[in-house]
Amino acid sequence: MKILEDINLSNFSTIKIGGKAKIIYFPENIEDIQFLIKKSQDENKRLIPVGIGSNIVFKDGILDYIFVSTKRLKKLEIKQRKDTFFIKAQAGVSFKEIVSIVKKFNLEGFENLSGIPASIGGATAMNAGAFGSEIFDILQEIKWIDNNGNLHISKKEEIDYSYRKTQFQKEGFVYEVIIVLKKSNKNISEIIKKHLLERNKKQPLNLPTIGSTYKNPEGSFAGLLLEKAGFRGKRINDIAFSEKHANFLVNYGNANFKDLMNLLELAEKKVESQFNIKLEREIRIIE
């Protein structure tokens, strides 16, 4: 198993904020993960899975956790049964890799998720979604390891999940999933292209960001609430809510964790006092 020490965590977050990790582990199989889970228990240290880093931000300074990168868990297997495709993907497989398969075979079901900058493990753990779809719509099975190191193979119906939430945010390591997609009569590549154009129009993809900051409250939109509260473009030094989309934080160059947290707390207090709605963070914050 590859191990790196004294690593800049800003390189493991798409918003490019964070201090240093004392150590990061790069497991290559189930046994490696089981070893790291036991290590986290023996040393009484939190185990933190890290994927592409599109919804995670780390505090400044030195962080001494069991950081587990999924970058070496990249196995991908495709099985076809008539017009149905079963894609088995390990946690580190990126959505871009899935999109390549989807385009090649013109498969339906993944197109709405195609522009999300995510890996399979992280997306499953948070039930990532876009354009009215979420990854649990197409999941069939999840192979995961619990906090005691036991391996489970669960149908999605056996997993506790809801909007942008799963049990894996509290316990367990997503190791591998099976996604089920079907051949389509539509031009899937064209639909994906349209979604990507729409995403580029609405989201600040020209700057370091971590995607949607807050979950949409029931019956409303977090971005709309933030905009009405005056937070579109609101900035503290180099961290800001985007001018393009008020629910996206952006880094204008040298943003730091303290300013980010101050901006979040300011926004949350204002929205709650103005609309009596408590915003729930979608991003993971590691302090």
Question: Can you offer a commentary on this structure?
Answer:
With 287 residues, the protein is of the alpha+beta class. It has 3 domains: 2-69, Uridine Diphospho-n-acetylenolpyruvylglucosamine Reductase, domain 2; 76-189, Uridine Diphospho-n-acetylenolpyruvylglucosamine Reductase, domain 3 (2-Layer Sandwich); 205-286, Uridine Diphospho-n-acetylenolpyruvylglucosamine Reductase, domain 1 (Alpha-Beta Complex). It has 6 helices and 21 strands. The strands form 6 sheets. Strands 7, 8, 9, 12, 13 and 16 form a 6-stranded antiparallel β-sheet that branches. A hairpin with a 5-residue loop joins strand 12 (139-145) and strand 13. The protein is globular and about 55 Å long. The two termini are 26 Å apart. The relative contact order is 0.14. The model has no long low-confidence stretch (mean pLDDT 96). GO terms for molecular function: FAD binding; UDP-N-acetylmuramate dehydrogenase activity.
